[in-house]
Each structure stands twice: as structure tokens, then as C-alpha cells.
Design a protein that fits this description.
- It contains ten helices and five strands; from the N terminus they run E-E-H-H-H-H-H-H-H-E-H-H-E-E-H.
């Protein structure tokens, strides 16, 4: 019957043996068998006083260590050709210890992966057939046609960006119509009648023309000004309505 023993940091005889070797700062390839066997047997004797049944598994390895110790005390004979030494009695134990350490590292890695996977939550796979039923479409174009199509794409993209930029400018300036109205009112302090071109001044950009025109429409809605244009595409003349303008100023105050 096999027992799994765990006392303090030791799980089984090989775990104890590895601990003793590492604690003594020995190389696993050059184990001082006599010293390790003595420490190992002392530990097993303490175990037997606690629980003789649990010490059984450890006794098997203790017997192996004693056997190796005995072989190490014998003279080292050479092979028949007088060139190579006989096999080291510790070699089989070293191999088993190396395998044990490798398995222990793998077990620790698997335990870590298990803990990590327990923190990962998944959801059932969704049915994506509705998105995959459509066949892929491939463009059958030669290099010249492809370059031409790509150039057209870039031109359209540039035009779209310009339109968006103009739209943002106009939107930003629409928020300043009230400020533009105040500027126009200030012009009417000196003159009661102005031409649209005089109101524009030297800044005749598209954005300023639109902003000024919208401001004039708002003043007309408020009946603060009167606008006349005698002929199509002729000069627009704006006359201030002083009574309404004064009333608006009074209300604003």
C-alpha cells in the first residue's frame, strides 16, 4: 500500500532527500552519501516515533541509501581494459532525483495554470452563421486599374475631409452670431444707412459673408433694420430702425 506523506514541507521520501541535499549545498551529481544517509535516518526515526506506518515508505529509500553507502566503502574496481572505472553506485539515485525534480516543476506549473484558469470565465459560443453565409467578394483588377481606383479613393477622402472642415468652421461661427450682431449695431452708431459691402469690410471670406448674412437675417427678424435691394444682384442697403434698436437695447439691459 502506498502512502502520501506530507510533514511540514516534505511530501514523500524523495522530497525529504532533495531538501537534505540542497540544505547541505551539495551537488546532486556528487552526493555525500554517508552524511545524507545519517541525516535521512535521523529524520525517519523521528517519524517512526510519531507514526510507524507513515514511516514505511521512507524506510525503503533509507535502505537504498544504506546500500549505496556500503558500495561506496568498497574499493573502486576498474574494468578489464584498466581504463574506465566501474559505474558509480549513486548514478541510479541521481537519475531518479533529477526525474523527481522535473516532475515537481511540471506539477507546480500545472497547479499554477489551474489556478489561473479558475479566474477565467468564458461564455457559450455564438452562432455566427448569419455573418458567414455571404460569400467573399474578390476584385479582379489589374495593377493599373487598382492604382486608378486607389487614387480616386484618396481624392474622395480628401474632398470629404475638406467638407467636414468647412462644416466645423461654420458650426463654430454660428455660435458667434450674437457677437457679430453686436459688431453690426456698433457700425450703425455713426451711420444710419450702410451697404452690405461696408458691413463686410475687408474680410470677405466665405465664412464671414455667411456669418454676416445670417446676422442680418436675425436683425431683420427682430425688426431692428430694414433691407432694400433695388435690382437683382444689386447692392444691398441696410437702414437701421432706431426705435426698435433702442427697444432691444433696453430689453437686453
Amino acid at each position: 500500500m502506498v502512502y502520501k506523506v506530507k510533514l511540514d514541507v516534505f511530501e514523500g521520501p524523495f522530497d525529504l532527500l532533495v531538501y537534505l541535499i540542497e540544505n547541505a549545498e551539495m551537488s546532486i551529481y556528487d552526493i555525500q552519501v554517508a552524511e545524507i544517509t545519517k541525516q535521512y535516518i535521523e529524520y525517519v526515526e523521528r517519524m517512526k516515533r510519531i507514526d510507524a506506518n507513515l514511516a514505511g515508505e521512507f524506510m525503503v529509500l533509507a535502505a537504498t541509501l544504506i546500500e549505496i553507502k556500503s558500495k561506496m566503502l568498497l574499493p573502486r574496481r576498474v574494468s578489464e581494459d584498466d581504463q574506465e572505472l566501474m559505474e558509480d553506485p549513486r548514478s541510479e539515485l541521481v537519475q531518479k532525483l533529477l526525474e523527481y525534480k522535473q516532475y515537481k516543476l511540471v506539477a507546480a506549473f500545472l497547479e499554477e495554470q489551474e489556478e489561473r484558469m479558475q479566474r477565467i470565465h468564458t461564455k457559450p459560443q455564438e452562432d455566427l452563421s448569419v455573418y458567414t453565409n455571404e460569400p467573399d467578394i474578390y476584385l479582379n483588377l489589374d495593377l493599373v486599374a487598382f492604382v486608378k481606383a486607389f487614387k480616386l479613393f484618396l481624392e474622395r477622402k480628401k474632398t470629404l475631409e475638406e467638407v467636414r472642415e468647412r462644416y466645423r468652421i461654420i458650426e463654430r461661427q454660428r455660435m458667434t452670431i450674437e457677437d457679430r450682431i453686436e459688431q453690426i449695431k456698433h457700425l450703425f452708431i455713426k451711420k444710419k444707412r450702410l451697404k452690405f459691402g461696408e458691413i463686410l469690410g475687408g474680410e470677405r471670406t466665405r465664412q464671414n459673408v455667411v456669418l454676416t448674412f445670417l446676422s442680418m437675417l436675425e436683425l431683420m427678424r427682430q425688426k431692428a433694420v430694414k433691407v432694400r435691394q433695388h435690382v437683382n444682384f444689386g447692392e444691398i442697403v441696410i437702414t437701421v430702425n432706431e426705435k426698435e434698436m433702442a427697444a432691444k437695447e433696453g430689453n437686453n439691459r
